[in-house]
Here is the input.
Amino acid sequence: MRKTTAALAALLLLTTQLSACAPDFSDGADNGARTEQQTERVPLIGAAEISLDSAKTWAEANGASAQFTAAAASYWKYGELTGIRPEVLYAQAALETAYGNFGGSVTPDMNNFAGIKKADATDMKREDHEAFPTIDDGVRAHFNHICAYVGAQPIGEVHGRYYTVSRLSWAGTVKYLDELSGKWCPVPDYGELIEKNYLDKMYKY
Here is the structure.
């Protein structure tokens, strides 16, 4: 229990630091690309490679909040509807929210699992971020935001920041997890953090 608590505290600190990320901040098409030596890349598009129940078990084993665990069902639902891999986005949400424990500018009541900002945001404060009425709406917004990255069709009404992304030169061209680095967040190894610290571990369940 002490080890889990310490790990969660460290994750909350990382989440607080990542809250300084400005999603979609860059119009640079080459940011985040891996070198030729790094050939194994994680596609954003495709069918889930882990079951919903296994993902929930992974989340619970890592101290996830009840809200985050409950959100898994919506991730798998919108994964089927959009063709985007749900476990990849669920792993990203784990990083962004510290498994639903949050700790940064975004709070649990906002149902914002991806740190999505408002279209007219000028800072990193709570009011600069989108708030969604339900868990399902928050998860749908996460998928819709990624839809602008990969060129998939969004589901239902989209949030303002979706249009911000859709106007960028690289909109619709992002196909791999590592390409989120330098686009979703200025952290150069953002995609690798998701893969190594979350996604790879999820696959063990």
Residues 2-33+41-202 form one domain.
